[in-house]
Write a structure and sequence with these properties.
This protein is of the alpha+beta class. The protein contains three helices and four strands; from the N terminus they run βαββαβα. About 35% of the residues lie in helices and about 20% in strands. A four-stranded antiparallel beta sheet has the order 1-4-2-3, with helices on one face. Helix 1 packs across helix 2 and helix 1 runs antiparallel to helix 3. This is Phosphocarrier protein HPr.
């Protein structure tokens, strides 16, 4: 199962607008993408509510994973968003 560790770059963490953008990108992937805070339980990354209850703040490390055909590309796409300051756009 491919996975990638990234640091949350948005100043508000994975809340509000950043959570919506990440959830939209994750839901658009051909496989289910999961996200977890380091050492925590994974949640479905395609759900804004799940992302917000994850309570991943600015600077927190998260692990993004997926399984199946296209998992590498799905993990990379979601990881790129999480590692970008989405509030600055």
């Amino acid at each position: 199962m491919p996975e990638k560790r990234v640091t949350v770059a948005s100043k508000v963490g994975l809340h509000a607008r950043p959570a919506a953008l990440v959830a939209k990108a994750a839901a658009a992937q051909p496989v289910a993408v999961q996200i977890a805070k380091t050492g925590g339980d994974p949640v479905a990354a395609g759900s804004v509510l799940n992302l917000m209850t994850l309570a991943a703040g600015y600077g927190d490390e998260v692990v993004i994973s997926a399984e199946g055909d296209g998992a590498d590309a799905a993990v990379a796409a979601v990881a790129e968003l999480v590692a970008t300051d989405l509030d600055a756009q």
